[in-house]
Amino acid sequence: MTVEAAPQAGPATPQGTRTAARPGARMRDYGILVAVVAIVVALSFSTSTFLTTGNLINLLDQCAVVGLLATGATVCILSGVFDLTASASLALSAIVGVQVARHTSVFVGFAAAIVAGAALGFITGTIVVRSGVNSFIATLATSIIYRGLAVVVTSGAIIYPLTKQSVDFGALTWPSIFNLTSATILFVVVVLIIGVVVAATTFGRRIYAVGGNAEAARLSGIRVGSVHVSAYVISGICSALAGLILASRAGSAQSSMATGLELTAIAAAVIGGTSILGGEGAIWRGVVGALLITLIGNGFNLLGWNTTYQQVVQGCLILFAVAIDRWLRRRAR
Question: What pLDDT shows up at residue 34?
Fold first, then answer.
């Protein structure tokens, strides 16, 4: 997606308020919620274990990683760009976190991973903005570079924290409020913060304006390049946090972590109703999209279905979401 794509009649506004009065807008807002409720009801009646406390806690814990990546992907898509570096940034940030922890402490290692994620996002955004290359291609190439760096740093091996650090390193798996894992609490807090920033601040309005019509935003005095770089930084931080959660669960980090998960994150954002053309959508939609994908996977496991077909279902959902988005845009003209 290029920053000039999808010209609009004017800058979009948060939550798609420009078309809020239309039935199509309501469909985009609440259609995903109806789908989630339908799956929850179906699984509640078809299995005896879905509504158990253990399964629900596990469901939210599984959603944390995809949800964080979907949050970062949503911010980027809203601003009019794609980020295919998410999973590579996740792996490289987690590796940095483990390596730093080995020489200092677990807390410092976690902080270093977040800083690394922000730095990688800044580099990615700068490459996209300065090169002028389509964001899809530019971030695809950059992701290959990051994944290669991860292999170089680890020599292709799995790296572990020191033995005495193993308990503290698994802190994100510990039970927390209402027995939810610390990873789930972290996920909720980060999503709430980013959601408020995007929906209720000047920076958020600039994201929608740039994604809706980059040229109009530029003429109105918005620094389009800075907005895009900031979006990538947010995505990088989300990737780093997701990487820490995976590393904390496994007690290690490696270069092959989360391979291909960036596509699942983009799928979650699109399924949630965020327009791939930019300027329309919301953070909560991407999170609900991630929850829907997680629910599908959980349902396949509980029902004992062949998980091979899970990818078919996800693909159909993506096609359906994109087709609906295109249809709604045509009706809005």
Answer: 84
